[in-house]
Design the sequence.
């Protein structure tokens, strides 16, 4: 158990960075479209970053829609969830009060985790009306390093107060204690999670570019996860749903696939970044957006040493055409870029291991 947990943490760190240490050469099955790779020539340079401190490993970021508030995950033991005021640029831990019992939607829930039992990876938010939202969070159980409890926590976020409040609704366990990475939920309450590496695979398999992960779907009717056949890729990472819920977007290393929301799933479009890697995926208006490390200096295959600069790229959801909009240089103060969140003219950046998040403004 302890050995598996250590391996999982290594794998999770690699997934957050979005890289493996050798080129990815596996074949994706018969997509109907294959978009050309864009260049960085038109991307604007990020000249300077500002920081919001006090957040350990803010791997993923979401905005509470139509508000000034941002929620950040904390992919480190005892980090959990954080609430950021985008106007004052101040952050604080976001802690749910003790619930009397889980919601009827999640009758098989494990006990509500203590705030220090929250080691949160990917997060996703969905509006349910009347100023309330459901927040989905991949929890690796950050309280005891000898325990693995891979689980998806679900919360209600209420914005009908001066400051948003958080209420725990319940959770759903990952199948076979698989380590989840990113999460998204559909309008019907179905939950979709990426798994980067199944237990039968090793880090060497990921480095070799082999198929190691998949997408899993939980539904309110079955109350269990099923693997979507056809969603198996190398290092499944970021995930999003199309606006109508008919398609799933899956980031996996330097590739992005659009698959049908069916089982088995069918790949309908693919994209590849020659200049970098895909990581977390989120909607930004009518486009998808991602941020990740750049690979331009990786002459002999991807490695930690060469993956330091970063890119911000938007994606056309129909054909997956990519458009690099920003690029930035590595600094000792901030690296390990894992996600981007645009709010008006400000871009916020997450990191899978730094003790802060970053932001910059675009005129």
Sequence:
């Amino acid at each position: 158990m302890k050995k598996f947990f250590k391996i999982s943490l290594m794998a999770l760190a690699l997934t957050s960075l979005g890289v493996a240490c050798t080129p990815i050469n596996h074949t994706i099955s018969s997509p109907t479209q294959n978009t050309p790779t864009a260049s960085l020539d038109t991307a604007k340079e990020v000249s300077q970053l500002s920081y919001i401190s006090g957040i350990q490993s803010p791997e993923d970021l979401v905005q509470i829609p139509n508000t000034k508030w941002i929620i950040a995950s904390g992919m480190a033991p005892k980090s959990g969830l954080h609430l950021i005021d985008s106007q004052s640029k101040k952050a604080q831990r976001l802690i749910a009060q003790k619930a009397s019992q889980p919601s009827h939607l999640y009758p098989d829930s494990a006990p509500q985790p203590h705030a220090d039992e929250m080691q949160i990876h990917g997060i996703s938010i969905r509006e349910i009306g009347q100023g309330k939202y459901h927040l989905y969070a991949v929890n690796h159980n950050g309280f005891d390093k000898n325990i693995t409890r891979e689980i998806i926590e679900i919360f209600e976020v209420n914005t009908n107060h001066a400051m948003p409040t958080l209420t725990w609704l319940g959770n759903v366990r990952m199948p076979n204690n698989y380590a989840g990475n990113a999460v998204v939920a559909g309008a019907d309450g179905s939950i979709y999670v990426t798994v980067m590496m199944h237990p039968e695979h090793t880090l060497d398999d990921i480095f070799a570019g082999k198929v190691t992960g998949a997408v899993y779907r939980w539904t309110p009717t079955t109350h269990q996860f099923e693997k979507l056949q056809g969603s198996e890729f190398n290092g499944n990472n970021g995930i999003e749903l199309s606006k109508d819920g008919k398609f799933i977007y899956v980031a996996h290393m330097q590739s992005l696939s659009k698959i049908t929301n069916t089982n088995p799933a069918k790949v309908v479009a693919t994209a590849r970044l020659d200049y970098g890697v895909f990581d977390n995926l989120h909607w930004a208006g009518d486009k998808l957006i991602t941020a990740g490390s750049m690979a331009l200096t990786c002459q002999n295959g991807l490695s930690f040493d060469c993956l330091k600069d970063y890119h911000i790229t938007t994606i056309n959801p129909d054909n997956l055409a990519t458009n690099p909009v920003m690029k930035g240089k590595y600094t000792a103060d901030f690296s390990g870029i894992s996600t981007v969140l645009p709010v008006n003219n400000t871009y916020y950046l997450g990191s899978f291991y730094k003790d802060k998040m970053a932001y910059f403004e675009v005129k």
